[in-house]
Write a structure and sequence with these properties.
Layout lengths: L1 E4 L5 H8 L5 E5 L23 E6 L4 H12 L2 E4 L5 H9 L3 E8 L2 H4 L11 E6 L26 E3 L8 H7 L5 E6 L4 E3 L2 E2 L1 H11 L1
Parallel strand pairs: 1-2, 1-8, 2-3, 3-4, 4-5, 5-6, 6-7, 7-8
Antiparallel strand pairs: 9-10
Length: 206
């Protein structure tokens, strides 16, 4: 099972988390997020190359995402807004890998994946809460994944921590979940992860 730590920002904290060796680290370029990295942010060069860097965006212009990927240093893009086939296609043609995030609460929300023609490298399912965009730190009913029928692998997000990790691993045997995404439940404050908690997640995944 691969795993991702999202909402990273502070250089020293990034370096400490990188030493625990998650497969992905996410950096948020959405201004409304409390984990927003800032316009001119550059991902610390001390993070090893084998850790995939993910730029997270909400309804950002594709040209700007491509430009930022070069200046900030990420090769994966996570789209949390209304982005669709055109954006996925353009990003793929620019050589970037794409994660399309969907907020879900019902089986009908899961069915939204069927509207895509240009498929991403992963779909990410996070918890839907009203009209909010982005993570809520809460878990959704994983049973609704029964409606997922595509061959695109999944990233599971939403309230994951060391306490429900084993249950997430069990459910991943039933559905095509390849990555577990951790964020707020491992935090001291927005954008700052508690390294001991990250380490315990790593140990349990081993």
């Amino acid at each position: 099972m691969k795993w991702k730590v999202c909402g990273m920002r502070e250089s020293k904290n990034c370096e400490e988390v990188a030493q625990v060796n998650p497969d992905f680290m996410g950096f948020i370029w959405a201004k409304k997020s409390p984990r927003y990295v800032g316009e001119d942010y550059v991902i610390p060069a001390t993070i090893p190359n084998h850790i995939q860097k993910v730029g997270v965006f909400v309804n950002e212009k594709v040209d700007k995402i491509i430009e930022l990927s070069k200046s900030a240093g990420f090769t994966w893009v996570q789209l949390h807004g209304e982005e669709g086939d055109d954006e996925i296609d353009t990003l793929h043609k620019a050589g970037l890998k794409v994660i399309k995030a969907l907020s879900v609460a019902t089986r009908a929300d899961v069915d939204e994946v069927n509207k895509f023609v240009n498929l991403p490298d992963y779909f990410l399912f996070d918890t839907k809460k009203g009209k909010e965009v982005g993570g809520t730190g809460e878990r959704f009913d994983w049973n609704i994944l029964e409606n997922y029928k595509l061959n695109v692998p999944l990233i599971l997000a939403g309230g994951l921590d060391e306490n429900n990790l084993q249950e997430a691993l069990t459910i991943s045997k039933k559905y095509p979940i390849e990555v577990l995404d951790f964020n707020s439940k491992l935090e001291l404050s927005p954008g700052v992860k508690i390294v001991s908690k990250v380490s315990r997640v790593s140990e349990k995944l081993k």
